[in-house]
Write a structure and sequence with these properties.
Elements (H helix, E strand, L loop, with lengths): L1 E2 L8 E2 L34 E5 L5 H13 L3 E6 L7 E6 L2 H10 L3 E6 L13 H4 L15 E5 L13 H4 L2 H12 L3 E5 L2 E4 L1 H6 L5 E3 L18 H10 L10 H8 L1 H34 L4 H7 L8 E2 L10 E2 L4 H10 L2 H31 L14 H6 L3 E2 L9 E2 L3 H41 L16 H35 L4 H29 L6 E2 L2 E2 L1 E2 L3 E2 L25 H8 L5 H6 L10 H16 L7 H23 L14 H23 L2 H11 L15 H5 E5 L18 E5 L15 H31 L5 H53 L1
Antiparallel strand pairs: 1-2, 3-5, 3-10, 4-5, 6-7, 8-9, 11-12, 13-14, 15-16, 17-18, 19-20
Helix pairs in contact: 7-20, 8-9, 9-11, 9-12, 9-20, 10-11, 12-21, 12-24, 14-15, 14-16, 15-16, 16-19, 16-21, 19-20, 19-21, 21-24, 22-24
Pfam families: Anoct_dimer (PF16178), Anoctamin (PF04547)
Subcellular location: Cell membrane; Membrane
Membrane topology: Multi-pass membrane protein
């Protein structure tokens, strides 16, 4: 029997093959220090915490913990001071285990201090002002820079080891501990081996598994040697009073890992770039606001002698009424704020801005890769996922290393099935949107007929307030909300199942595949209504005598006359997180250890940062794809992001358990997604200006169909544009089905927006020459603008290198010095190993020479 006396759970093993059932005796004492990060002996650091409650599944748990100890980890368990049903298992990695897995994971560690001279900051002359916008240097000190190299256990003497306890940072230790937890077996049945903490958590064997925060976020730890990094992050980053300060990215990366660090770096960079777009967008808005009273077409709409005498045709069958054009006076003025020549300039500017944003982000990302030692984070260095290793049973030669075995699965078939499933779900949400559109058309007529029914006396008081449009919009919105929420919940599970079925090799591949699937669905979900309003609604409506009917029954919706403002809003549902820790302190008045304080925090989502990225990328799409319809979008996005950074910082620092630190070289699949959105944005904005805005028809009228009246100087004018853009319809040509109920006395014609010949003409109600001029101008505008912008984007992408020249030189210098150091290390190592052999050889040589001299003497 083997007794493991160094644990709080004392296991007795009857055999070394881990197949026997251990007995245990849990103890509840601990060192009575609420912020302690060590075992009860105060020496061994806690690298991970496992929490379990029931005893029903103890066989798997005990086998799993025995496997951990067999792999070199040390465990100590203690009962909860709050809930006697809970047991906390503390995990510690000894020095030898840390060295072994640091080599397995290719963790880069310091070799010698960096002797390269850094470039002086261009803002150094303004340091007296800018220092107030950076974290307090007395609290968050700049760390010394080192040249680093992948750790090798046999060359430990040549690494910069000043203190063994601090050589591996807490994030490194947590990362290595999680690597072991993900691969430790908990059950073996024949040839089938089951392993991994993830499956044990899903199966309820453990309730939680997490690394520890180093202290409370609002109270500095008094424990000796505690870095208090969480406290510093809260004070200088997450606290509302620090909203104006730059982010301490190096400390964020050190505490949470590169993946969290690169997210906040991207979010901060995106917010800074938004400031420039917000200034230009605000200028465009002010220009439109100042010119709304002076625009010729707005004056004509509001003029009682022009717009007041123009009677417009009803926009639906029977239920709608005739209306005067000047009733849209205020709406036409508001339209001028967003639909002016400044909008065209701003749309082109945003197309260039998005290119600059992506190119400068690549450069900044390259700098972070060098500073955070992720330049060499390549696929072959990333270990395969445990699920991949377990399910891939085929073997072939690794084409990179030439080493056997290299597991390979039928990814072609798996990916094909995954793509088909994703397309099915995308078509499903498109079908739901089409169905809701049909419902809107059908419900409008149903509500209209019901509200006008004279026999329904109970509805009479509501007629003034409940209009068919309101009733239709409310019910359609509710149905759309329910359908989208249900599809979101179902699709998330399906996307995870498909990605698991595809069996990506590495975790990076897994996350990129899942991200792409989820974004494609969310893209259709969020933007489909915007694309419908921008490019479909009100476009194919025919004319009053021959309207277009959907499914042969429902008349297609018409856009409001002269009002094409499309604003996209979305309601952000923030998770309301409640922490119970403070209440427990008050009620129990007990010393609650660090691991139990963290257990009371919220668990980290399985999808990690996906929804944080998704929220910002969806916003990025609204800012770029439809910015021509709402120039204030960058301003609102900027204000939102200033709060978003601090809310996310506060949330991750105070309300969530500490995440497992992960390596990341970039933002993953979100980079090509952003590039795709940027390319699409050029086309959408050009089409919005061409087909939704009034800009092209105005320009065609100004240059081709307008002249000053006789008696005035020759030239072009916008006078008469409103009358030119409205066609004439004879009210007697309404069909019996579409004939309006009410009619204006002594009125024989009404006007509608289109370019068609009037009644009585040889080609009545057919398109005029002005219509074809406008169509040709729209197509020419799209082609010219797209080519100019795409050419500019290509030139900018070529001129701006992805990696700054200084960073390239630093990377080359570091590689050179690292090779020199390793070369010298190899020489010293070889010399050290050969020294005894050389000494023995010299001794033998000296002895032979002495014997020869002796023989010669005789």
């Amino acid at each position: 029997k083997k007794r493991l006396l160094d644990t709080r759970l004392i296991y007795e093993y009857q055999a070394a093959d881990l197949s026997s059932e251990p007995c245990f005796c849990p103890q509840t004492e601990f060192n009575d220090k609420e912020d302690s990060l060590f075992f009860n002996d105060g020496v061994r650091r806690i690298d991970f915490i496992l929490v379990y409650e029931d005893e029903d599944k103890k066989e798997r748990r005990e086998y799993f913990e025995a496997s951990l100890m067999k792999m070199g980890m040390e465990l100590e368990a203690t009962k909860s001071v709050i809930d006697e049903k809970l047991t906390f298992v503390k995990v510690h990695m000894p020095w030898d285990v840390l060295c072994t897995y640091a080599e397995v994971l290719h963790i880069k560690l310091p070799i010698q201090p960096n002797d390269l001279s850094s470039r002086p900051s261009p803002w150094r002359y303004l340091s007296c002002i800018t220092k107030y916008f950076y974290p307090n240097e007395d609290l968050i000190r700049k760390e010394a820079e080192f040249f680093t190299a992948p750790f090798e256990k046999d060359r430990l003497d040549f690494f910069h080891v000043r203190d063994r306890d601090a050589f591996f940072t807490e994030s490194m230790r947590s990362r290595m501990a999680y690597y072991i937890l993900s691969r430790a077996p908990y059950e073996i049945r024949g040839s089938i081996k089951k392993f991994g903490i993830t499956k044990l958590l899903d199966g309820g064997v453990y309730k939680a598994a997490y690394p520890l925060h180093d202290c409370r976020f609002n109270v500095k730890s008094k424990e000796e040697g505690c870095p208090n990094e969480r406290f510093l992050l809260y004070q200088e980053w997450a606290h509302p009073k620090s909203f104006y300060k730059m982010q301490p990215l190096d400390l964020i990366r050190k505490y949470y890992g590169e993946k969290i660090g690169i997210y906040f770096a991207w979010l901060g960079f995106y917010t800074i770039m938004l400031a420039l777009a917000a200034v230009v967008g605000l200028g465009c808005f002010i220009y439109g606001y100042k010119t709304q009273e002076t625009s010729t077409w707005s004056k004509e709409v509001c003029d009682p002698e022009i717009g007041g005498k123009i009677v417009m045709c009803p926009q639906c069958d029977r239920e709608c009424k005739y209306w005067r054009l000047n009733s849209t006076c205020e709406a036409s003025k508001k339209l001028c704020i967003f639909d002016n020549f400044g909008t065209l300039v701003f749309a082109v500017f945003m197309s260039i801005w998005v290119t600059l944003f992506l190119e400068f982000w690549k450069r900044y990302q390259a700098e972070l890769e060098y500073e955070w030692d992720t330049v060499a984070f390549l696929e072959q260095e990333e270990p395969p996922r445990p699920e991949y290793e377990a399910k891939c049973l085929y073997e072939r030669k690794n084409p990179v290393t030439g080493v056997m075995p290299y597991t390979a699965c039928g990814r072609c078939v798996r990916v094909s099935i995954g793509i088909g499933t994703v397309l099915f779900w995308i078509l499903l949400i498109v079908a739901s949107i089409v169905a809701i559109t049909v419902y809107r058309l059908a419900a409008f007529f149903a509500f209209s007929a019901r509200l006008r029914a004279q026999d329904l006396k109970e509805l009479e008081p509501l007629k003034e307030y409940v209009t068919p449009q309101m009733a239709t919009s409310v019910t359609a919105s509710l149905i759309s909300f329910v359908v989208i929420m249900i599809l979101n919940i179902l699709y998330e599970r399906v996307a995870i199942w498909i990605t698991d079925f595809e069996l990506p090799r590495t975790k990076t591949d897994y996350e990129n595949s899942l991200t792409l699937k989820m974004f494609l669905f969310q893209f259709v979900n969020y933007y489909s209504s915007c694309f419908y309003i921008a490019f479909a609604k009100g476009k194919a409506v025919g004319y009053p005598g021959d309207p277009v009917y959907l499914l042969g029954k429902y008349r297609n919706e018409e856009a409001n006359c002269l009002l094409n403002i499309k604003t996209s809003g979305r309601v952000r549902a923030k998770r309301l997180i409640a922490s119970h820790t403070s209440a427990l302190y008050v009620i129990l008045k007990k010393v609650i250890p660090r691991w139990e304080q963290d257990y009371q925090l919220q668990p980290v989502s399985k999808l990690g940062l996906f929804y944080e990225y998704l929220e910002m990328v969806i916003q990025f799409g609204f800012v770029t794809l439809f910015v021509a319809s709402f120039p204030l979008a960058p301003v609102l996005a900027l204000v939102n992001n200033l709060f978003e950074i601090r809310v996310d910082a506060w949330k991750i620092t105070t309300q969530f358990r500490r995440v497992v630190p992960e390596k990341a070289q970039d933002i993953g699949a979100w980079q090509p997604i952003l590039q795709g959105v940027a390319i699409l944005a050029v086309a959408t904005n050009a089409m919005i200006i061409a087909f939704t805005s009034d800009m092209i028809p105005r320009l065609v009228y100004y240059w081709s169909f307008s002249v000053y009246p006789y008696g005035k100087s020759s030239g072009h004018t916008m006078e008469g544009y409103i009358n030119s853009s409205l066609s004439v319809f004879n009210t007697d040509d309404f069909s019996n089905f579409s004939m309006p109920i009410g009619k204006v006395p002594n009125m024989t014609t009404c006007r509608y927006r289109d370019f068609r010949f009037p009644p009585g003409h040889d080609r009545q109600y057919e398109y005029t020459m002005q219509y074809w001029h406008v169509i040709a101008a729209k197509m020419a505008f799209i082609i010219v603008v797209e080519h100019i912008v795409y050419l500019t984007k290509f030139i900018l992408s070529y001129v701006i290198p992805d990696v700054p020249y200084a960073v390239k030189e630093q990377i080359k210098r570091e590689k050179y010095l690292t090779q020199v150091i390793l070369h010298e290390t190899n020489l010293k190592l070889v010399s050290k190993r050969l020294k005894p052999v050389i000494d023995d050889a010299l001794k033998v040589t000296d002895t032979s020479m002495a014997m020869d001299d002796l023989e010669l003497g005789f």
